[in-house]
Amino acid sequence: MKERSRRGTRALYWDASALVSMLVENEHSAAARRAAAAREAAHFVSSLASAEVHAVIARLARERILQPDQARDARTRLAGGPWRWTRIQPDVARLGDLALRHPLRGADLWHLGAALALADLLPGLELFGFDQRLMAAAAAEGLAPPGVPR
């Protein structure tokens, strides 16, 4: 595990679980809103997280869990949030090592690798999410923010 600096502007890499919690009310929504309200923070979102969230919103609309106007509102808030869209890609060799150390699904492994690649450029970056396995892996890699449920 690499120890990361906590100095300077706070940077958060949002995984899909955190974004969904910000856009669709659930048990983690209050924590997601608090994180998004941290104006001094830089909030990073990948294209993979965006794709995952759009898929969740569409599924919730198809299942009529969200009304059409709620789904439209969630998509609008995703597009207009405090996010900085990043095209960062995980290092392929690092993904293999991470897969050996952490029991993650493919997308979560990708998010961890992408967050680590971004943290190489922005020391102190934290991965923000609510998936317990992903956050345990993020903590082991020095990327978990304090106070986030694991």
Structural notes for this entry:
With 150 residues, the chain is α/β, with parallel strands linked by helices. It has one domain (11-140): Rossmann fold. Helices cover 53% and strands 11% of the residues. It is built from seven helices and four strands. The chain has helices at residues 16-23, 29-36, 47-62, 68-80, 92-101, 106-121, 132-140, and strands at residues 11-14, 42-46, 83-86, 126-128. It has a four-stranded parallel β-sheet, with helices on both faces. The longest helix is centred in the middle third of the chain and has 16 residues, at 47-62. It is globular. 34% of the residues are buried. Mean pLDDT is 90; it is low at 1-7.
Compact description:
With 150 residues, the chain is α/β, with parallel strands linked by helices. The protein has a single domain (11-140), classed as 5'-nuclease (Rossmann fold, 3-Layer(aba) Sandwich), CATH 3.40.50. Helices cover 53% and strands 11% of the residues.
Global Rg: 15 Å
Distance between the termini: 18 Å
Strand-pairing-aware structural class: alpha/beta
**What's the total helix number?**
7
The CATH superfamily is known as 5'-nuclease
CATH names the topology as Rossmann fold
Relative strand content: 5-15%
Average residue-wise pLDDT: 90
The CATH class name reads Alpha Beta
Task: Chart the SSEs and their pairings.
Blueprint: E1 11-14, H1 16-23, H2 29-36, E2 42-46, H3 47-62, H4 68-80, E3 83-86, H5 92-101, H6 106-121, E4 126-128, H7 132-140
Parallel strand pairs: 1-2, 1-4, 2-3
Helix pairs in contact: 1-2, 1-3, 3-4, 5-6
